[in-house]
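[Q] Does anyone have a clean structure-token version of this?
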Amino acid sequence: MADLDLSNFETAAETAAQIVASFDASLAGLRALGDEHLEEQLHLVGRCESRLAAVKAEKITALARRDGEGRAADVLRNDVKQSKGSAKRQVKEAGQLAQVPKVARALAEGAITPQHARLIAEAAEAAPPGAPIDETELLAAAAEQPADLFGATVRDHLNERDRGDLEERRKRQRSQRRLTWKRQPDGMFELFGRFDPLTGGRIETAITAVANRLWRDEDPKNRPTPQQRLADALESLVTHSGGEATEGAQGVDLLVIVDYDVLAGRLANPRLVDGTPLSAQELLGLACYANILPAVFDQKSRPLWLGRGRRHATKHQRSVLAARDKGCIGCATSPNWTQAHHVWHWEHGGGTDIDNMCLLCSHCHNLVHTNAADITQGSDGGFTLHHRRRSRAPSPAGLNGSHRTSRPVESSRNTGDVALPLRC
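[A] Here you go.
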């Protein structure tokens, strides 16, 4: 019996050695490709990473099924040398992935990234029992979108299915709230938090407001990094208010979008700018502790089409842009961290009109102005950012810096289809 065990061990060791040798040969082949077609090589490496991630998830799930999740986490920590937190997280994610077989198969084929797979698996677990996610629909989107944009797609997909009891949903989300901090060996502190959509939105807008004020007061020649500025803003909010809400903290502009039901003569479908639905009770709560600023946009008092009379977008235009674009059109960064960009550049005659502007974060904005990306407009009027391939020759629009859309932007000032947002 002992001889049989030893034989099996030797066979397993030989198989493992053969797998490692084959893997080493594949890596050597990748390195031997040199610097030709680097984009294609990175794409190939990404597919390999996805396939390895699928195999790892399968083995973790099998071990957890056989010996329990605790044992699987111990192996990842002690044998694979993962941290305790990372080990537990990987066991959980592997179990979630096993519940969405189409997604697991796409990951094993290298068709999607581990990030895409994790987002879909988490959404499947969070979906209400009577309205499961559509794996096929999300996989089609995953094949076209980078993970940051896909995150917004998954959120919208989940919101469409979870239209039931919003009070119960928010109660469930709030029960998952947490804030922890960890002191590092060098004495530094790291904070980690998780909040429901409404609370998270209020925290984000409060920190944004302080960070913007700090930016205006900085020496332009000696600015901190954006991350340092955010840390300063959080410190200012927490320590300077004595832990109590102040009138200034309540005055931040949390954007809430509400449709007007003409037939019923009332407001309907309240939601945050990212599409997260709000219950009537939450909307009333916002009205109680925040200033409601009516923002029904029209051409007379608050025009959305300013032409050449003003270069920078107004506060009201930014509100509509946030409602329409939901953030940076290139990477889905929150509207709080974006700039209003003239699609047809101001320098080339473009007007400050709502249908000639879109939201871009600083990074994506720089890509446009350095001819590394183009903005196109779809048939639905929405804008999309497309990164240029290195081998692509600059277009005439790119040479003069205008970056005109793939079709002329048609004025929609008389369509009357602008959403009606409330600013809280």
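[Q] Thanks! Anything notable?
[A] Strands lie at 178-183, 189-194, 255-261, 266-272, 293-294, 338-342, 357-361, 373-377, 383-387, 421-423.
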